[in-house]
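Hey all, quick one. A colleague (J.T.) asked me to put the adenosine-5'-triphosphate job into the tracker so the inputs and the structure tokens live in one place instead of scattered across chat threads. No bug as far as I know, just bookkeeping. Sequence used:
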Amino acid sequence: MERLAIMGGTFDPIHMGHLRMARAVQRQMDFDKVVFLPSYIPPHKQTRSNCASWQDRLAMVELAIQEYDDFVVSCLEFDRGGISYTYDTIKFMQKLWPGAEIYLIIGEDALIHLYKWYRVPDLLRLVHFVAAKRSGYEGEAGVTQLVRAYGPWVAEKVIHAEVPETAISSTEIRQRLREGKPIRGMVPLAVEKSIYERGLYGAEP
Ligand code: ATP
Ligand code: MG
């Protein structure tokens, strides 16, 4: 049976934290493939200033995963448009890859909010989450909330991965670019090049 891991995110931009964590989790959990799933933020919701378009975010993910075997990207959430709920996305993926075992990779900062997601108990019946430590966050709080809301069975649906921590965030990268500071080593070289070429996040070409 194929074992698939889905790595969802805004990837604005994708960085070494995402890539290292995905690779480490893949090795630890023996996943056949990691599917990067950029979330689609509809144009009318792109209210944050200094964010990149779907096309630019996708292009950067494609450049970043080039050097990694078994990493692929899915445009599912863009193709569907509007707001995508993970529950609906997983239902769709199960049809796409019948019989595959599906896991969702999540950082502990996001895990804290998982109990509020759309149809969480139904989602947890379909998949396991693999949580990776993120410096400054305590994911256990998220599991406690989940158990309080839905019962003890949900605790087994969250697997804690022992992966090396990388203290990088897209927010920090966007801010550094805005301030004209270097981002060398924080993203793959091809991504860095593309950020400057496209003048993203206020980077001066
Ligand atoms: P932003 O600062 O814009 O929120 P981000 O760096 O958090 O960006 P996202 O696209 O929001 O990146 O994250 C996608 C997923 O990757 C989330 O599950 C998040 O928890 C996880 N993640 C991102 N960066 C790291 C990191 N350095 N270590 C562990 N997990 C991470
Ligand atoms: Mg984030």
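Adding what we noticed when we looked at it: The pocket of adenosine-5'-triphosphate (ligand 1) is lined by residues 9-12, 17-18, 21, 106-107, 109-110, 132, 134, 166, 168-171 (CB under 6 Å). The chain has one domain: 3-198.
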